[in-house]
Design brief:
Elements lengths: L13 H20 L7 H4 L3 H9 L18 H13 L5 H17 L2 H12 L5 E4 L15 E5 L2 E8 L10 E7 L12 E7 L5 E7 L5 E14 L3 E2 L5 H13 L9 H12 L6 H29 L5 H25 L12 H16 L6 H11 L4
Parallel strand pairs: 1-4
Antiparallel strand pairs: 2-3, 3-7, 4-5, 5-8, 6-7
Helix pairs in contact: 1-4, 4-9, 5-6, 5-7, 7-10, 8-10, 8-11, 9-10, 10-11, 10-12
The structure holds flavin-adenine dinucleotide.
């Protein structure tokens, strides 16, 4: 694994104090505002009030420098806060994409105007973004996006259809990958550009796609000759592919690729601990999950440390996402088996039953979103020089 994963070093002791402070905050906040822990809360629990309260604690925009309105803290500190939020199933979906991905992307590629416009409001929990990469005919093979950006006076006119756009109906703007030069079949990754597009722009139609659960999470977003001013182009036109690639380590390596079903694992652990009749098979199954979780946390924190040091971590991030999301699916199937007698129902007043129902419905998406496992294995193999 040397070279594939950054060196694993235990989290510094001072992060324990931060972790305790986050736990205290979450207990008090839940008590006061009454939110319930949810599986996959970073995708499904949208609560702007919670995002603003978190920001008031200084726990949003943590890695954005203070001169841009952020907290100027390290990726490791953010890692600790993020772990606690997910483990408690807190309602973090509103700010998730902005805080994880858009802030770092604007710091790396954004113009002064974009940074001034968005970074302080990302850090104060008031500005939410969606991601417009996937299209009906372009998911894993993103280079085949058909959304077009055409040069016009003062900017670009963007036309196309994006799909599976999480949270677009609640967000202020979305990051769009579009083709801005004719496709050269020998250099398919060239000629793509990234735009920041305000979602209430004329020419945008946001159409809901309902989940199996009936929830509205996804959208199809149709762009019909949407004008995008020059100051909303991210980075350099034509460099979209390389820019998106450098964002993926933020998108793929975080604790949300390990801890999406953590509230369920905790609930099952509590159930086993409270029973005086647990068989050996159940104990071994649960013990294996906890052992794997511990290893994966170390891997994920090693990437947070690499990001803090500005070291490349794309390959390790792909590895973590591939192993981490298969682990998440195993957590769901094993926990459902361990708690087989629980009454599973999304509307259930029995917390364990509700968590299992949510987890079973969300689990298939764990290994798809952010790059499928098959595609990630290809990325890892290429990184190892095997293909
Ligand atoms: C919960 C969730 C949230 C999402 N949110 C967003 C979002 O906010 N914004 C956004 O842009 N997208 C989003 N997506 C879309 C997601 O990024 C795509 O689903 C994913 O990239 C796969 O693309 P696809 O669905 O088109 O499948 P395809 O690319 O068509 O893949 C179909 C199957 O073929 C396999 N396959 C494809 N290519 C290869 C290959 N080269 N080698 C081996 N196997 C291959 C895949 O692994 C998969 O099993 C979300 C998806 C989910 C599930």
């Amino acid at each position: 694994m040397i070279g594939l994963v950054p060196e694993v070093i235990p989290l510094p002791p001072e992060t324990a104090e931060l972790r305790a402070a986050v736990r205290d905050f979450l207990a008090a906040d839940r008590n006061r505002y009454g939110w319930e822990p949810r599986v996959d809360s970073w995708i499904s629990s949208w609560d702007p009030g919670f995002s603003r309260r978190l920001a008031q604690q200084g726990w949003l925009g943590m890695t954005i420098p203070t001169e841009h309105g952020g907290q100027g803290r390290s990726h490791l500190e953010r890692f600790v806060v993020t772990e606690e939020l997910l483990a408690h199933g807190a309602p973090v979906a509103a700010h998730w994409v902005s805080d994880r991905q858009v802030g770092p992307a604007l710091l790396k590629h954004g113009s002064t105007t974009q940074r001034e416009r968005y970074l302080p409001r990302i850090a104060s929990g008031e500005c939410y973004f969606a991601i417009g990469m996937s299209e009906p005919e372009a998911g894993s093979d993103l280079a085949s996006v058909r959304t077009r950006g055409v040069r016009v006076d003062g900017g670009w006119e963007v036309t196309g259809t994006k799909v599976w756009t999480s949270g677009a109906h609640h967000s202020e703007a979305f990051f769009v990958l579009a083709r801005t030069e004719d496709l050269d079949p020998k250099h398919r990754h060239e000629g793509l550009s990234q735009f920041l597009i305000t979602l209430n722009s004329p020419g945008i139609d946001i159409r809901p796609i309902k989940l199996l659960t009936g929830q509205h999470h996804f959208n199809e977003v149709v762009l019909d000759h949407v004008f995008v001013p020059d100051d909303m182009v991210v980075g350099t036109p034509g460099e979209g592919w390389r820019q998106v690639g450098s964002e993926l380590s933020f998108e793929r390596s975080g604790p949300e690729r390990i801890l999406s079903p953590q509230p369920l694992l905790d609930a099952v652990g509590a159930q086993l601990a409270g029973s005086d009749d647990v068989d050996d098979h159940s104990l071994v199954t649960f013990g294996n999950l906890v052992a794997d979780l511990t290893t994966l946390r170390h891997l994920s924190s090693s990437v947070a440390r690499a990001l803090s040091n500005d070291e490349p971590a794309d390959l390790a991030a792909a590895l973590i996402k591939e192993i981490g999301t298969s682990f998440e699916q195993r957590v769901v199937s094993d926990c459902a088996e361990l708690a087989a007698h629980a009454h599973t129902d999304l509307e259930s007043s029995d917390t364990l039953g509700r968590l299992i129902a949510e987890a079973l419905l969300h689990a298939p998406g764990f290994t798809l979103r952010g790059g499928t496992s098959e595609v990630l294995r290809g990325v890892i193999a290429r990184g190892l020089g095997l293909r």
